[in-house]
Task: inverse folding
């Protein structure tokens, strides 16, 4: 069902960053469900984490440990280790300690990540049993296998890669992500891992991560349900033969920032394209806002409206539902007579009512497309925001009604 | 599909309040789609109206006219006359003027109400053509017919009635409502009409309406989509042989307030029971909040979560989704270790994790019921709020994908 999402593009290896995949049989025997990533010594690591107050045990641990030297990222699917209290925290610590022991590093150098069903005890022994195989599998050429290994209800693996030249040296940025439901990232996505071989100090890397995530992962929504397990990590191995990148690095900093942003955007949008039951990829663009928050309020009111999402599924240009959502978004003193709404390039509503030039045929032609842009001009100021989302289909209900069966 | 909603109860006539039904053939020939209500001269009228900024033309007009003497309420289904701009306002004025002319009252004494598809021009001639038949049909005994006449995607008519005695005089409060989708009333419901034969001054009636609506209509949600056309009206004809009711009337005031509240609650909950595609009637109770707003934020996060709603549809006690919704509700400094969550009487989560005593069998037994209470104890203070909602089923998607076909 994925919309405009093909096979993985070429994912360039990142020198100093290796990935290993193994099967712990957490949900189904034989399924690849454990991914270990190794960062070369001296790597910088930055992360953004869910703002959900019920954040999962691995999130709590990773948030603490990301500030120290990080050598390994340990991901399991099939179990989120969320809503598991003190026992869950101990379980996450145990899997990290085991990996640290096998790898000969301090336990604090291992960051855990989990995704899957909430509230079940983490099967620690199963995961521990798969760690050696994952370590044996470590290779810089395993990005595609890792992208598959972190999938849950995803139908396709998600990844993106960019390279640029600086002073004759090639710099690589490669990333993968997973997620298809419980998606409204809040400072991060479900799970994302992006690595570069540039040398970047932790503070600068953190800014790059925040900037990259803010306009990509933090602007996608499938069902408005912010996950307990959202994490996105950015790793800089420093293996490229270039000076350390800082905000004062000029062209190198700008090129790296752009590459990180493009990888973030591509893997974030891939999550929406593969949204549970998605048949449409929808861009909601809000312009002319008095401030960014009111643009976001309007955008999310539209992007979360079950009535708009079912109309999108039906390819029905029921634009009245868009007006209704804009009107209930809570923007203070909203003057509807200044508002224009476009479906693609078709003006469907102007001055608060149906556009005089609009015909149902024009709306239907836009709605029949797989990729649709809804543009709302508020006429209040100069601010804009863009959000990406999906429709709401029978398949979404089916997937989520049957998720645990 | 309606949950726990049977045939209409006995709807006692309200002396001084008559209802007439006719067919204008707005959406389908022969369908009863025009309802006229006449209030006896001297009646007081109070109303609450949608806070959607894109409110419909009839809402704009009724909000203005409710402050003057009101004699007629004119309702049509099949067309919401919303998102129709200046032309829509003129159309609403024309239908009112025609009714006023036929009835021999000033145009300002007629309040219009519309419900149905948004953004289509109101078929003024069709409605005008049905007005004389509706006037000819006026009777105090037509509550049930009117409850049917105002239906759109409703599967059953909705009404409630209460009587009480005061000083040997019987006082009646009877009400009807409609609505099944685009339901998250904000100061009102889709459409509700409640009448009493008590004598009540407009200012007191307004307070009764606000109090009644606030804990009933304003606490139900089906899909979070606040309508452009929500209105709820309370009419007091003053025909009961009793003194005028004021806040100082003691027992009479309290009895009337209670009766109005009970009628509001019964017809508001009836809207949820008949929610589009509903297979469950769900009560979300949030206790122990530090203030009412945080209780509402948590309650609506749960009530609007597509993941919780699909789990309810599947009768799956996937309580991790409830924790995740509570955690993302935006309550500042939420201490998850103080939170308990109950499904019915079963404690599913305590201290932020799965309750040690919880078994999946217990959760499944509650989930198998048609009426389910989710209770969240925040452990932060003394405030409570309750919200009523439905599940999200295949049928909801089907109804809303095919709404205009």
Result:
């Amino acid at each position: 069902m994925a919309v405009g999402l093909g096979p993985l593009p070429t994912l360039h290896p990142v020198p100093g960053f290796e990935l290993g995949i193994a099967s712990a049989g957490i949900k189904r025997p034989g399924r690849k469900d454990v991914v270990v990533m190794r960062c070369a010594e001296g790597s910088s690591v930055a992360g953004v984490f869910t703002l959900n107050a019920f954040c999962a045990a691995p999130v709590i641990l990773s948030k603490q440990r990301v500030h120290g030297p990080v050598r390994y990222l340990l991901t399991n699917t099939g179990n989120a280790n969320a809503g598991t209290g003190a026992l869950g925290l101990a379980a996450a610590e145990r899997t990290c300690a085991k990996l640290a022991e096998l790898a000969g590093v301090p336990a604090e150098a291992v960051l855990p990540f989990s995704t899957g069903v909430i509230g079940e005890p983490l099967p620690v022994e199963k995961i521990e049993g798969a760690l050696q195989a994952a370590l044996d599998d470590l290779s810089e050429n395993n990005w595609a296998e890792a992208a598959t290994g972190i999938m849950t209800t995803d139908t396709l693996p998600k990844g993106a890669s960019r390279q640029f030249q600086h002073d004759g040296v090639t710099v690589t940025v490669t990333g993968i992500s997973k997620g298809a439901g419980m998606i409204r990232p809040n400072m991060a996505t479900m799970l994302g891992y992006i690595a570069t071989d540039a040398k970047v100090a932790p503070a600068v890397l953190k800014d790059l991560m925040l900037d990259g995530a803010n306009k990509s992962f933090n602007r996608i929504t499938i069902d408005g349900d912010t996950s307990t397990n959202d994490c996105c990590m950015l790793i800089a191995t420093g293996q490229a033969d270039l000076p350390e990148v800082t905000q004062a690095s000029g062209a190198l900093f700008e090129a790296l920032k752009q590459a990180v942003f493009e990888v973030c955007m591509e893997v974030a949008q891939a999550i929406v394209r593969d949204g549970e039951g998605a048949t449409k990829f929808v861009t909601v663009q809000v312009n002319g806002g008095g401030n960014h928050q009111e643009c976001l309020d309007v955008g999310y009111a539209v992007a979360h409206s079950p009535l708009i999402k079912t109309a999108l599924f039906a390819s029905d240009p029921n634009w009245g539902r868009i007006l209704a959502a804009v009107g209930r978004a809570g923007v203070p003193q909203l003057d509807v007579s200044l508002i224009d709404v476009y479906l693609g390039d078709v003006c469907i509503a102007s001055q608060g009512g149906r556009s005089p030039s609009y015909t149902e045929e024009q709306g239907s032609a836009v709605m029949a497309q797989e990729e649709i842009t809804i543009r709302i001009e508020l006429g209040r100021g100069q601010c804009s925001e863009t959000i990406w989302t999906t429709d709401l289909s029978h398949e979404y209900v089916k997937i989520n009604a049957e998720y645990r069966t």
